Amino acid sequence: MEKVLPDKSGYFGIFGGKFVPETLMSALKELERVYNRAKRDKSFQDELKYYLSEYGGRPTPLYFARNLTKKLGGAKIYLKREDLCHTGAHKINNTLGQALLAKRMGKRRIIAETGAGQHGVATATVSALLGLECEIYMGTEDIKRQSLNVFKMELLGAKVIPVSSGTKTLKDSINETIRDWVANVRTTHYLLGSCVGPHPYPMMVRDFQSVIGKEVKRQILEKEGRLPDYLIACVGGGSNSLGLFHHFYNDAVKFIGVEAAGLGIKSGRHAAPLYVGEIGILHGSKSYVLQDSDGQILPAHSVAPGLDYPGVGPEHSFYKKTGRADYFVVTDKEALQAFHFFSETEGIIPALEPAHALAYLMKIAKDTNKDEIIVLCLSGRGDKDVEIVKG
Amino acid sequence: MVPDQNKSKSMNRIDSKFGELNRKGRKALITFITAGDPDLDTTFELVLEMERKGADVVELGVPFSDPLADGTTIQRASQRALNNKVRLRDILKLVYKLRRKTEIPIVLMSYLNPIYKYGLEEFATTCRKTGVDGVIIPDLVPEEAEEWLTVARLNKLSTIFLAAPTSPLERIKKIASKSTGFLYYVSLTGVTGARDKLNSNIIEALKAIKRITNKPVACGFGISNPQQARKVSRYSDGVIVGSAIIDLIEKSTSRKAILKNVGNFVASLHQKMVGD
Prior knowledge:
Chain A has 391 residues and is α/β, with parallel strands linked by helices. Chain A contains 16 helices and 14 strands. Chain A has helices at residues 25-40, 42-55, 66-72, 91-104, 118-130, 140-145, 147-155, 170-184, 201-209, 211-224, 239-245, 273-276, 314-322, 332-346, 352-364, 386-390, and strands spanning 11-12, 15-16, 62-64, 76-81, 109-114, 133-139, 159-163, 188-190, 230-234, 254-262, 278-282, 285-289, 325-331, 373-378. Chain B is built from twelve helices and nine strands. Chain B has a nine-stranded parallel beta sheet with strand order 5-4-3-2-1-9-8-7-6. In chain B, strand 8, helix 10 (226-234) and strand 9 (238-241) form a beta-alpha-beta unit. In chain B, helix 4 runs parallel beside helix 6 (120-130). The chains are: A alpha/beta (391), B alpha/beta (276). The A-B interface holds A 9, 17-27, 165-166, 171-172, 175, 178-179, 182-186, 278-284, 289, 291, 293-297 and B 64-71, 75, 82, 87-89, 111-118, 138-141, 143-144, 161-168, 171, 175, 186, 189-191.
């Protein structure tokens, strides 16, 4: 059994840490303290479990994709149906957990960043549920791409604040949310949506998302009597992938993360910091990041707004460095092809983010053996993306 | 290989300055501008002009793509400098050039990533050689600063850390112990930017901090006019003014106007702080 990561200072090997303005340090320490207590507190865990099942729709099915398996002609393919969660993606697992924590800390105001809008919708949802005030920062570029989600957030009573600085996407909405938090830290909880940011966020978000892998483990043992050979998931910040991987860390199961190659790695317009990035510091932690030779952060690009981010969670950087996981890339075009193929083959419209994982699966499935098992995290449904695909 | 601009100094310029001001019963006026806003030649002239008009220490901001502790004024300044392709190495060269003209203490303020990318050790060495006296890294807290502290000490650079209204006093004590040159007290819970009113708790906070450290304490964030500077300077060892100066740079239409407007403003800050 290897040591549980991160260490006490929030490090996964050399990655992670707390690189934030001093103003936030006490809030991060408080969050860490309250979270560590809640983790061991049965009443908190029971409350979370209650909401995850009765409200969130858990457990989600582990679906044997018979048509896909047949068409691709290799290993048996199972899909973890996070697209069936309330609000249509895995994001709700984390927002429920953090909103319950915010209540424990007596913080009645929630702020969050959103890229695709999925995390924004999931945050607005739990805020409505628990009677918390909610403001969501969203890049104007993303507001254009995901107008349906903006409307949903407003329906749910949240205020959507447009961010027009920098690249006008996820990276800048995180900057703006951090600035708000710096100013309002005493009354406000920052409900960060991925395994990024300063400690304890990468650990906490992973833990809340690890319900995905925990269920997969039980379900696959019931169905197949053994563990899978591969786990595959898309990687933006890394929350659905780490949620899937976490409970298999010490098992002989291969982890595959799929990043967005956008218009192609050579074009420079992509979102693949693990594949081609360098170590740097962005949004509070040390991790791989897209940057130029002067340490300026480069804009990312992906057709999937949820992957359109120049950084990645520190735990993924650790997996990359230690070889625990392998990372591959898929272009916009390949993801779109997979989006169509999968919709037609299984009657499930996937979000463009997991369509990246599906595209990679399509590439490798034929090279796998029929007696092998692959589990892919279908992290969200594609309703939000039909405009992009149509366009 | 450039000659070492700090070699002959046994004492860091920042320490000498605070010592000198202390003997005179005066407080430090620390002025902040973003290097390369709107261009490096203007920055060069501005540093000299601010010194002529009474600035005691100059802080030069290194532009960064993601300045998450800064309000809109410094964000825009940063963006203007980046649009001009101003790089950290250019700013170090600028300091080297300035050192032929002035002995004013120069502090660089940079987010960690540009420094990390440059290489902590190489950066610290180059700072010493070009004549930088201290460095402020707003996203580096002492817990994460071990490596930086080692290389900065080796190169006799002041390591200036920030303390905030949300920092418990016990923690401020720890931050002060890691700080050299001065301790930077953030006057408000928020990002940088000129404000009409001072935070009402500043004075109490400064008094409490002065009781737990004998290092110079300079106060910044939100201080935007001579009256505020005077008030804060009574309870601290120095006042940092940034966004209010950058607002003037932004509004001025020529280099001449920038120098004149900023010069006048710095003079008014200085006069109010030294006047009785």
